[in-house]
Design goal:
Order of helices and strands of chain A: EHEHEEEEHEHEHEH
Radius of gyration of chain B: 20 Å
Distance between the termini of chain A: 6 Å
Number of strands of chain B: 10
Radius of gyration of chain A: 15 Å
Oligomer: heterodimer
Strand order of the largest sheet of chain B: 6-2-1-7-8-10-9
Bound molecules: S-adenosylmethionine
Shape of chain B: globular
Largest sheet of chain A: 7 strands, parallel
Number of helices of chain A: 6
Shape of chain A: globular
Helix content of chain A: 25-40%
Structural class of chain B: alpha/beta
Strand content of chain B: 15-25%
């Protein structure tokens, strides 16, 4: 399968988990990585937290911005992030979904519609069930799913909820997810 | 039928609904952000226990009450007092001194929702001694939120957050000086609203109606696609006097739009721009 985008959703424990998942990915990875993480509003931004982790550009997704390959985008705190048919982002301040804004479901569902079977969705550690419906939609539209092995996850509620909704997916440790993504960079095939 | 075909059909149904709203009632949502429209409409379909968007279209065509519900669904009215306090701090420090040089001042709040942003602005202007020289025009497409805005009465549950925002925005007094608490409501000083005119105005079809020194339009543009953003920003540009200023939402941008060249940024971190002289 040839992926055109990766979406990642995580919550409690996610800041550290992403440090493993995103480590040393090469800019040769010809796709965008788009991430929703539930954390409290912060001013220093995500690029600061992940500085030096890899050589990709890391930035906050902006409204109406073109989505570029080789860039890691984070949903801004307090805004829902979705993807439009013309491969741009849009933001929204509507009510929280699953007690969360940004919501993983909103990103995943809109990404699934745009990228259909060229999408990889990944759910990591978290203490709520956001993302489960989104992952189901990715799967339905032919995309691929990875869920962090709940036995390894810092908080297993999010991975376990996701697993309830989908029949098949790859169950992986953070290190193997990282290897899997890195491999896509070397040779964008499975 | 496979999922991709179903998706394709759902998208057709969405387009038909939007077209039907326009043909029957004249509300034009064609250039609103698609993901937003779709999410809101599918939510309504689910809440009303319908199976398809087409069923909603049918109900809407025969029943104006259903249309009203859809209009409410599509309009996101989330707002708060001194939302994004840094914006108001920058207004105070960088915009007010420029406004002070004009004998009379017009401010346009476009998409003011339930009016918290307008009250915040009025408080700021009062503290800066400008309130009496200012006409504020506060507009929204949604009559219901304007009715709330006119009253200036809000549920008090978020007062802690407002007070914190007010302080972070550089407020000079105590936030409680501006309202009276009664039961679970905060009733704001009517004096703050005396120079405010509330108007129904649809940014998509209605024209410019003032020469503005300052336009505030925050968290409205994100619901429009690129084309409509350009159209609405051109409307603002046309309404602004040379040297006039515009403030947009912290996550909104001029840089991807057609008016980018006509404005220069005047603050470092908030989105406040000045129309270049000669434009
Ligand atoms: C999220 S609120 C923003 C409130 C406030 N400006 C703030 O930032 O806190 C968006 C508002 O835009 C209004 N709106 C949406 N489409 C509009 C249009 N075409 N013309 C005028 N107002 C519109 C909605 O009714 C809603 O009240």
């Amino acid at each position: 399968m040839k992926y055109k985008a990766i979406v990642i959703g995580t919550s409690a424990g996610g800041v550290e988990a992403l440090k493993i998942v995103l480590k040393d990915i090469e800019p040769t990875i010809e796709l965008p990585i788009i991430i929703v993480i539930h954390i409290k509003e912060r001013t220093d931004g995500f690029s600061k937290i992940y500085e030096g982790l890899n050589r990709l550009t890391i930035k906050e997704a902006e409204d109406k911005e073109d989505i570029k390959n080789g860039v890691i985008y984070f949903a801004p705190s307090n805004y829902h992030l979705s993807i439009e048919d013309d491969y741009t982002f849009s933001l929204s301040v509507e009510e929280k979904v699953n007690y969360s804004r940004p919501s993983i479901d909103i990103l995943f569902e809109s990404a699934a519609e745009v990228y259909t079977d060229n999408l990889l969705g990944i759910i990591l550690t978290g203490a709520n069930s956001d993302g489960a419906l989104g992952l189901e939609k990715i799967k339905k539209l032919g995309g691929e799913c990875i869920v962090q092995d709940p036995k390894e996850a810092y908080f297993d509620i999010m991975p376990r909820s996701a697993l309830k909704y989908i029949s098949t997916c790859k169950l992986m440790s953070l290190n193997s997810i990282n290897r899997y993504i890195k491999k896509l960079g070397g040779n964008n095939c499975e | 039928m496979n999922e991709k075909e179903l998706l394709e059909i759902e998208n057709i149904e969405l387009q038909l609904l939007i077209e039907a709203i326009y043909l029957k009632y004249g509300y034009d949502f064609k250039n609103y952000t698609k993901s937003h429209l779709k999410r809101r409409i599918l939510r309504r379909v689910k809440l009303d226990n319908l199976k398809t968007i087409t069923q909603l279209t049918e109900k809407m065509l025969y029943d104006r009450e259903v249309l009203k519900q859809i209009l409410l669904d599509l309009s996101i009215n989330v707002t708060e007092m001194f939302r994004f306090p840094k914006f108001f701090k920058d207004l105070r420090e960088d915009v007010i001194p420029l406004l002070k040089t004009y004998p009379s001042i017009n401010i346009w709040h476009a998409g003011c929702s339930t009016g918290e942003e307008v009250i915040s602005m009025a408080i700021l202007l009062k503290e800066e001694g400008l309130l009496n020289r200012v006409n504020i025009y506060a507009t929204d497409i949604n009559k219901k939120v304007l009715d709330i805005a006119k009253e200036g009465i809000y549920s008090i549950e978020d007062v802690k957050k407002w007070t914190k925002n007010y302080q972070e925005a550089g407020g000079k007094k105590s936030f409680s000086d501006y309202y009276v608490a009664k039961y679970d409501h905060a009733i704001f000083d009517q004096d703050l609203l005396k120079n405010v005119t509330f108007l129904e105005h649809n940014l998509v079809i209605d024209k410019s109606f003032i020469d503005a020194n300052l336009v505030i339009c925050r968290n409205v543009l994100i619901y429009f696609n690129k084309e409509l953003q350009n159209q609405v920003l051109e409307l603002f540009e046309e309404s602004l006097i040379p040297g006039g200023m515009i403030g947009i939402g912290s996550k909104e941008n001029l840089k991807f739009t057609s008016v980018n060249e006509k404005f220069e940024s005047i603050t470092a971190t908030t989105k406040i721009y000045k129309k270049k002289i000669g434009c």
